[in-house]
Design a protein that fits this description.
Helix content is 6%, strand content 34%. The strands form two sheets. Strands 3-4-5 form a three-stranded antiparallel sheet, with no helix packed on it. The N and C termini lie far apart (44 Å).
Amino acid sequence: MAADDFNSKPSTLNVTAISAKNGASTIECWQLASPFKSSAQPGVSGASFAQLGKAGAVSYALIPAKFDGGLHNAPAV
């Protein structure tokens, strides 16, 4: 594999799952309908995010090793 294969950002998330149907195991392959988008949020700027369904605040983020998304403040409690 070329180095670009590891550094490129994915466009969608594919999931392979083992589930059961009628008492037998099945392998299912799913692809999220929502594509990955680049974040502009401080601290994770440039990371890839995908929304997981119609839930309000559920997302999946790809943040590679040694990622520098910029400085940000700690979350308020």
